[in-house]
Design brief:
861 residues; alpha/beta; 6 domains; 44% helix; Restrct_endonuc-II-like; PD-(D/E)XK nuclease family protein; PDDEXK_AddAB-type
């Protein structure tokens, strides 16, 4: 703004130099270590101290640090502390002398000794710390005859001292009338007296519920003013509210720009973060992240989206599968997309090894050349990376640090992508310190909350207010005076014409509680009570008077009816026909590629696979010794783990595998008893089909047993979940308390009249037809013999691992189950998938309904 004004009014050819106070502390000598090199020096020093040597620093650390990466985090804190101390040309040594008579003396003396080691480490690398350079080389420029301080409300104390002793002319321009000069220092900085002064006028102050309603109120205030944008000074002391302000004004026709709004990372920075994680841990999750980024296309020969889709499908079936095991799985699949993914995974692993096998600068340069860098912001980042590598080159060879360490350090030094103003912007949302220079007659400020106005120090763990005062650093009291002056000045500017609206909020977006700024209570005694009542009144949540309603409903996609229906899917239709439609016809599901352990489906599949392999082995299934059966199954589980998860499966998978092994050991005892009772296995994974109208019901029976003496058959299904009995899993007794499903008519064959365990006539409602239809298929193939439905429970305890049969199962039950299946098939053929059930036991689609009734969330199909 100052540059623009000078350019507009200047008559001279050469303009004056314009800079900020902090820039005067900038030193350009190449031997001054950048902050990241200083941080490395501190890391090296901290890590070089042995456990015995830490005793000399007991005041700093009563116990030697042992946490992971402790040196990196502590080094960052100390470098930040030294940067703050530079405001008064302090280093840790001089600060320790100032604090020698305080309770903090021993701690700062320990820091001082560590600083000496870090300075020596920097010197051995040919660098000097900025703290040392400032103490020996800082001075104001001598080639200027006049320094003008324009609108400066705060500056580093060392600069204040230097200006007070400056031999040239120093002129301070203060935004205040001449009769206020007693409230400023000789350099024009606000004095502490501002903190005790009453506000000069009575602005309109409002407290709102949260940042959203605060931003909406600010927009409404501007709308009521009905002035053009050049007449409005809009700002926020809170960046979060500032972003919301820009959003609301833009949505309502005033394109607004908030310079402090957070920006997404640049494409190259985002990629380097993902590549760093891949270098650190080449697991399937980081592999999937690489494939989500467009930059990956140039190093995997294209088809990135297709390969990512294939990868996630495999990860959904195989939890926590890592690249080595993934390559084994892909090698056994004959689909073209699997072969392409195999080449991609293998290539990324090879590139990772090549990167780690080369020195870091060469590896990074080669990698960046392979990327397809097109956007302009990433090209600027490439230039900055080059500037980083140049001074760092001597350091790389001297330090034994990993490539991941260097890449993380580089990423921490890359500049943040600044927000870019839209070309058609109408108004800017300024920050608190910029608002003084906004000329608009109508002032609207949000975020007038305590800790924001007046602002507080950064909360450094080493610098209490008392220590700041002792070291003559800027304190919270100084910021209080500064912010009080700024608010007074902004109000006085609009005393004769214009308006002022100040907004604060009671809660943040995360529910945290805020207090109104103390400056809003700096009013004359006669207005204090009304101000307190206004600022501390009860505020209702913004949605307290609203009833939640949907703006729209989901429209389920169309799907063709399939001629082959799985027997196990009939359970889903009986539970809810609409969810059946989504799951089995639309083929909608909620994938879980990022799970790090087996879910219930995976757990059951592993147990099933082991039992299938065992039962298909003609010799193994004839075993009658429980120990030998158990040993065989244990070996099978080991093979499955090796096949699906490689040689180093995650801990969670190993724990779950042990649980399966324990259950299979208990199963081996029950299998030995079953064999001794005369039962033998005759079929394993038996595929069956039952005609029903124009459809075909299909399924796979886990196992079919036959008794050696009687010839009795039993159809078996393995169950790893909690079940009470076979009958209760398949049908429920209808009582006066039973809530009949809205999607099943009372005359439907899903209801069966039968006899309960007490011999009374009752109605049953089918919930599942799996084992009855398995029995039907086996009965048809065996010439009419009625098999016994049987579960093999693989429960959590030894008592819950057993063979359970449905002994009362009869021909009537068989025919009722068949009639129910035919009714379901007829309903599917006629596209009867509505209405949905209110609730189901396990709802895979609850996310879509947002825990509301399905009939409210979806349009009827």
């Amino acid at each position: 703004m100052l540059r623009e004004a000078l350019a507009e009014s200047a008559t001279a050819i050469l303009a004056p130099n314009v800079t900020t106070p902090g820039a005067l502390l900038h030193l350009t000598e190449p031997t001054i270590a950048p902050s990241w090199i200083e941080r490395i020096a501190w890391i090296e020093v901290l890590e070089s101290i042995s456990p015995d040597e830490w005793k000399a620093y007991a005041a700093l650390f009563p116990s030697p640090p042992t946490t992971k990466d402790w040196a990196e985090s502590l080094a960052g804190e100390i470098v930040s502390l030294r940067t703050t101390l530079q405001d008064h040309l302090h280093n840790l040594f001089t600060a320790s002398k100032f604090l020698a008579d305080t309770p903090e003396a021993d701690r700062w003396e320990s820091l001082s000794r560590l600083e000496n080691l870090a300075e020596k480490r920097l010197a051995s690398w040919g660098f000097t710390s900025r703290s040392t350079a400032l103490r020996t080389e800082f001075h104001l420029p001598t080639h200027f005859s006049k320094i003008i301080l324009a609108g400066i409300t705060e500056m580093p104390p060392c600069l204040t001292k230097a200006l007070e002793s400056y031999e040239g002319e120093v002129l301070s321009l203060i935004a205040a009338p001449s009769d206020e000069q007693d409230h400023f220092s000789e350099l024009g900085l606000p004095l502490s007296s501002w903190a005790d002064r009453d506000l000069p006028s009575s602005p309109q102050v409002a407290i709102l519920a949260d940042p959203n309603t605060q931003a909406e109120a600010a927009f409404q205030a501007v709308a009521n003013i009905a002035a053009c944008s050049s007449k409005i000074a809009l700002g926020s002391a809170d960046d979060q509210t500032g972003t919301l302000l820009a959003k609301i004004f833009t949505e309502n026709g005033w394109n607004a720009f908030h310079p402090a709004s957070s920006q997404p990372p640049q494409a190259l920075v985002r990629w380097l973060h993902a590549w760093k994680n891949w270098l650190a841990k080449p697991d399937s999750r980081n592999l999937a992240t690489l494939l989500t980024l467009p930059e990956c296309s140039s190093i995997i020969c294209g088809k990135r989206a297709q390969k990512l889709q294939t990868l996630n499908k495999i990860r959904d079936k195989h939890p926590a599968v890592e690249p080595p095991a993934l390559l084994n799985l892909l090698a056994k699949m004959d689909q073209p997309e699997c072969a392409e993914l195999h080449a991609t995974v293998s290539g990324l692993l090879t590139q990772r090894q090549a990167f780690l096998g080369n020195d870091f600068p060469s590896a990074l340069e080669t990698h960046l050349k392979a990327l397809d860098i097109r956007d302009e912001s990433s090209r600027h980042t490439l230039s900055y990376i080059g500037d980083f590598l140049l001074p760092a080159s001597p350091i790389f060879a001297k330090l034994n640090r990993s490539h991941v360490f260097w890449l993380q350090l580089l990423l921490s030094e890359l500049p943040i992508n600044p927000a870019q103003p839209p070309t058609d912007r109408v108004i800017d949302v300024q920050g608190w310190l910029e608002l003084l220079f906004e000329p608009g007659e109508h002032l609207v400020i949000c975020g007038m909350n305590e800790t924001l106005v007046p602002s507080r120090s950064g909360g450094e763990p080493w610098l209490s207010e008392k220590i700041r005062q002792t070291l003559q650093l800027n304190t919270d009291a100084d910021r209080h005076a500064r912010d009080a002056y700024l608010l007074h000045a902004m109000l006085r500017m609009r005393e004769t014409r214009g308006t002022v609206h100040l907004f604060c909020c009671k809660n943040g977006l995360g529910g945290e509680t805020f207090l109104p700024s103390r400056l809003l209570l700096q009013v004359p005694r006669e207005r204090l009570v009304s101000s307190v009542k206004n600022l501390f009144r009860e505020i209702e949540p913004p949605e307290s008077d609203l009833i939640w309603t949907r703006d729209w409903k989901w429209q389920a996609p169309s799907a063709a009816t399939r001629q082959r229906i799985s027997i196990t899917a009939l359970k889903d239709y009986l539970s809810c026909p609409f969810r059946f439609y989504l799951k089995h016809l639309v083929r909608m599901s909620l994938p879980e590629p990022d799970r790090r352990e087996m879910n219930a489906r995976d757990f059951g599949s592993m147990a099933h696979s082991a039992l299938e392999i065992w039962a298909k082995d003609p010799d193994a299934r004839q075993l009658t010794d429980a120990g030998k059966i158990s040993a065989y199954l244990a070996g099978t589980i080991d093979d499955i783990i090796l096949r699906d998860f490689g040689r180093k499966p995650p801990l969670a998978i190993r724990i779950q595998a042990q649980s399966i092994l324990q259950r299979l050991k208990w199963f081996a005892n029950q299998q030995a008893i079953s064999s001794a009772e005369g039962w033998e296995i005759i079929h394993v994974e038996r595929k069956i089909s039952i005609p029903s109208g124009e459809f075909l019901l299909s399924g796979i029976i886990d196992r079919v047993d036959r008794h050696r003496k009687t010839g009795q058959l039993r159809v078996i299904d393995y169950k790893t979940g909690d079940v009470k009995s076979i009958e209760s899993e398949h049908r429920q007794k209808v009582t006066a308390r039973t809530k009949r499903p809205v999607h099943i008519p009372e005359d439907a064959p899903a209801y069966q009249n039968g006899i309960d365990s007490k011999g009374k006539s009752v109605d049953f409602l089918w919930k599942n037809l799996q084992l009855p239809l398995y029995a039907l298929a086996e009965s048809i193939d065996s010439g009419g013999q009625l098999p016994i439905p049987c579960y093999v429970h693989l429960g959590k305890t030894e008592d819950n691992v057993k063979f359970t049969t449905w002994d009362s199962f009869s021909e009537d039950d068989l025919e009722s189950a068949r009639a129910c299946a035919d009714w379901i098939i007829g309903s599917i053929a006629n596209n009867h998938f509505w209405p949905p059930a209110d609730k189901v036991k396990y709802d895979d689609f609850a996310l879509l309904s947002q825990n509301r009734p399905f009939i409210e969330a979806f349009r009827e199909i």
